[in-house]
Amino acid sequence: MDIVVENVTKHFGRRKAIDAISFNVKRGESVGLWGPGGSGKSTTMKILAGILSPDHGNVTFNNEHPAKLKHNIGYMAEHNPVYENMNVVDFLLLSGELHGVRQATARIANIVHLCGLEEEKHKNTGELSRGCRQRLGIAQALVHDPDVLILDEPTTGLDPKQIAKIREIIRVIGKGKTVIIGSHLIAEIETTCGRVVIMNEGKIVASKNVAELRDASDKNTRLKLSIKGGDRRQVKEALGNLPGIHRVTEIENHCLELTCESDVKSAIFDMCQREHWYIAELTPVPARPEDIFQHVTRK
Questions:
Q1: Which of 215, 224, 223 has its CA nearest to residue 295?
Q2: Which CATH class is domain 3-215?
Q3: pTM to 2 decimal places
Q4: Over 185-243, what HEC string results?
Q5: What CA–CA distance (Å, rounded) separates 233 from 223?
Q6: CATH architecture of 220-297
Q7: 217-258 per-position pLDDT tens digit
Q8: Where are the domains positioned within the chain?
Q9: CA nearest 188: which of 229, 223, 147, 156?
Q10: Is the pLDDT higher at 78 or at 213?
Q11: Has residue 176 got a pLDDT over 80?
């Protein structure tokens, strides 16, 4: 199911939560909405799910308004609500009945297996761990077999083992559905989505596939460097004078971190050869989420 968002704006009182945003999602595509808290991700997803209406602009799913297609949309809120005195199976049965699902028992058995809830299926939802509760939220969003799945912060607050389970579920689901995930964690988007829409202060500042995002941020790269044989002050000064090196910072274990262009290594080697210094370490430092975000939001 193709999704088209055109010039959508939403206010809450005087605050503009999202500001004339536009983007498309193709059928079968997995797209991540990434940005800091307050960037407009959750508001955007609620509009996509038909829970909120935009003040201006349009959202269409195959040329239909999402409110008319809720039977084809599965939505999981960041803090997914549950009836805490119901057990997992009864809660999913109720969700299925509300969606008009026929043969709900067989459908729910498959979803419980997919989401790894077999050992918890007879527990009350209020007894579930945070990770199991998140998996239950995904199960509830899937109970009516929607074409579009919208997940808001599906792994927030989980430990690494729980995060891995959730990501694997999302990857399996994404093979047959259009998936939109909202997260402030770039690792979440990288492992589950093919494309990222970056939001900041209610606006879309970039829309790229994940590889393009990394490549763009790596044009200004960071290197960890250890040079022996020279006075530390002289080494820093010499590095700072090389073209393409923007900043030299001292870090742990007597190493330096360079913020630089990606093609400065040969200049560093030539400098060390002239000064009779030698390089004990020269390794790339992976781009941090804040580096990527600063790069794409730079005015």
A1: 215
A2: alpha beta
A3: 0.77
A4: CHHHHHHHCCEEEEEECCEEEEEEEHHHHHHHHCCEEEEEEEEECCCHHHHHHHHHCCC
A5: 18
A6: 2-Layer Sandwich (3.30)
A7: 555 578 999 999 988 889 999 999 999 998 899 988 789 999
A8: 3-215, 220-297
A9: 156
A10: 78
A11: yes
